[in-house]
Amino acid sequence: MGLSYCVHATAEVAAGAEIGSGTQIWNEAQVRAGARIGRDCILGKGAYVEGDVVVGDRVKLHTRVSVFAGARIGDGVFVGPHSILLNDRRPRAITPDGRLKRDADWTVSGVTVGQGAAIGGGCTILPGVTIGRHAMVGAGSVVTRDVPDHGLVYGNPARLVAYVCECGERLLPDWSCAACGRGHEPQGVLP
Ligand SMILES: [Zn+2]
């Protein structure tokens, strides 16, 4: 019986990874044992997903995205090219006495990304950060703090500049969207 998902000949999907049906895994991508990828996802060229990562359905991980252990990615999330989701708050190769650190010598602090959120290209998301549902992170940002649902952030460090609709347009002061007409409950104080 054939696979229910597509893997390019140059991609590496570990035997212990779970991949949902309809998912496409492109050239040179790597999915390690223990990772769980949902249905109808696209992993672009060179995308890297470590073990202990959970990815929802209909997620796009673009070219050369790196998702490190502990990350939890909701349904419908977009991660732009070359963005990185980190997981070690205090990275050191060695312990204070000079020994090479092993898994037991550091704590995993994975990134959480809510349903429908989008992360532009070339972003760095620091360990332990939570990005809210339908939030948007501008390209090239370094996200050091949590992002609220529907929040639009950018810069280094990324700052909240507006709130955006599910469709991606900025919300008006009454929390409606001029582009698609959708209304929203207030999410916070408009910056
Ligand atoms: Zn809208």
CATH C-level category: Mainly Beta
How many strand elements?
22
Going by helix content, strand content and strand pairing, the class is mainly beta
Strand fraction equals: 25-35%
- SS element count, helices: 0
Count of all domains? 1
Distinct ligands: zinc ion
Q: What would the average pLDDT be, to the nearest integer?
A: 96
Strand order of the largest sheet: 1-4-7-10-13-16-19-21-22
CATH architecture tag: 3 Solenoid
The name of the CATH superfamily reads Hexapeptide repeat proteins
What integer value in Å does the Rg equal? 18 Å
Distance between the termini: 54 Å
How would you sum up the major sheet? 9 strands, mixed
Shape by Cα distribution? globular
Low-confidence stretches: none
User: What is the percent of helical residues?
Assistant: under 10%
**Helix and strand string, N-terminal first?**
EEEEEEEEEEEEEEEEEEEEEE
